[in-house]
Predict the structure.
Amino acid sequence: MLDAEVKRWSEKSCEQLISELRESLDYEVEFAAKEYCVEVELLENTEKYVHVLVAVDDGSLPASLRPLTYSFIRHKADPDAV
């Protein structure tokens, strides 16, 4: 489930990520008849990149206290690049 959510979010452009993650997002998805809690948060928005965190858990204890996480960096386009 984590891989699918990371893929979904990492395919977005920097502009989309910044726009959609003005505040952290919490939502649920269903996979194989089981519900999972997903949290996506914009950790950094610098001149050169955005850094995004994706966390997934099944809502049970202790999984909800230590969810599976992955962060990725999406580099912004360099306006001076040719």
Remarks:
- The two ends are 38 Å apart (CA to CA).
